């Protein structure tokens, strides 16, 4: 299978390239970047045959099967739609759009074209969260509360590598998207009660730097989510699952109990890398002609909840 990675030289694009290198039968045919000299050099250093500054040029490659979009949020919906209309399967990093109208259009085009279209909800695939999901599905655990902290220090417009960013990130439509989807995925329910607060807007970036979100599903489980771009200290997202039988803390691909005792995750998946597992699901769904876990249709539920949260914030 031949794949293009758009935004390959960015923080997440490189994570996908590293993940793909561990998956047999997948060839990175091309990469797409903004600066011609930079992306050409990048491709040469990695032994990738083609480099483009235009996604349309990459999509014109007849031998190309699929595209991974690790591009700015504001481009996700239009680029995902362009890929599907060009007859290419697509995995778009989250969020698949930054508004509900575009999210619904992405799902509509997927249904129209029949292409495999997946949103990059990595948390569904991290072994730590998979272990919890398996226990819930087996009836061994029931979530009482998810307490989640998403913390960064980004008072300037930089990416995860600390490099200047050409687009503005967003606590709600990007970072909250991970947890909103995961909470609804783990409980198997759509949140029917929502609340949201946000702090002052950044004078230059025009975005809220702090946010608090609460959710509840019909069965009674709640989620408390705190987000900040003002936090000094370790950054990332940390999940505390408070369950009827035990408490568990997930830090990306690692899991401990409430007393910090490690949970053995061996045997949960073929890899301990959530990005690799996410990519494996995408390629497997294409080869098997099926809907992937975290398809854009499945991810639409999170986008609907984000839309309602945005309405609460606007009010």
Automatic annotation (TrEMBL):
Residues 2-121 form the Gfo/Idh/MocA-like oxidoreductase N-terminal domain. One of its GO terms (molecular function) is oxidoreductase activity. Residues 127-269 form the 4-carboxy-2-hydroxymuconate-6-semialdehyde dehydrogenase-like C-terminal domain. Keywords: Oxidoreductase. It comes from the Bacteria. Pfam families: GFO_IDH_MocA, OxRdtase_C. This is Gfo/Idh/MocA family oxidoreductase. It comes from Salinispirillum sp. LH 10-3-1.
């Amino acid at each position: 299978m031949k794949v293009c990675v758009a935004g390959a030289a960015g923080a997440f694009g490189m994570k996908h390239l590293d993940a793909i290198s561990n998956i047999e039968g997948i060839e990175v045919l091309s990469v797409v970047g903004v600066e011609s000299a930079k992306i050409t050099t990048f491709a040469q250093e990695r032994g990738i045959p083609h480099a483009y500054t235009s996604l349309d040029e990459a999509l014109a490659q007849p031998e190309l099967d699929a595209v991974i979009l690790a591009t700015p949020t504001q481009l996700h919906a239009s680029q995902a739609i362009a890929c599907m209309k060009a007859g290419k399967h697509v995995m778009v990093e989250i969020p698949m759009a930054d508004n509900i109208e575009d999210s619904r259009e992405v799902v509509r085009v997927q249904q129209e074209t029949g292409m495999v279209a997946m949103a990059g909800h990595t948390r569904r695939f991290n072994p730590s969260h998979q272990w919890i999901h398996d226990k819930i599905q087996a009836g061994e655990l029931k979530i009482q509360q998810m307490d989640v902290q998403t913390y960064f220090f980004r008072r300037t417009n930089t990416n995860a590598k600390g490099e200047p960013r050409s687009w503005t990130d967003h606590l709600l439509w990007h970072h909250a998207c991970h947890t909103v989807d995961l909470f609804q995925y783990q409980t198997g329910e759509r949140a029917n009660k929502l609340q949201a607060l946000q702090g002052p807007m950044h004078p230059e970036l025009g975005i809220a730097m702090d946010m608090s979100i609460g959710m509840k599903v019909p069965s009674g489980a709640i989620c408390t989510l705190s987000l900040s771009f003002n936090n000094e200290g370790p950054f990332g997202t940390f999940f505390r699952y408070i369950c009827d039988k035990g408490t568990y803390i997930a830090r990306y691909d690692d899991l401990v109990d409430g007393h910090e005792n490690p949970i053995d995750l061996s045997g949960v998946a073929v890899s301990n890398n959530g990005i690799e597992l996410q990519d494996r699901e995408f390629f497997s769904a294409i080869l098997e002609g099926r809907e992937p876990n975290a398809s854009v249709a499945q991810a639409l539920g999170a986008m609907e909840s984000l839309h309602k949260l945005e309405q609460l914030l606007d009010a």
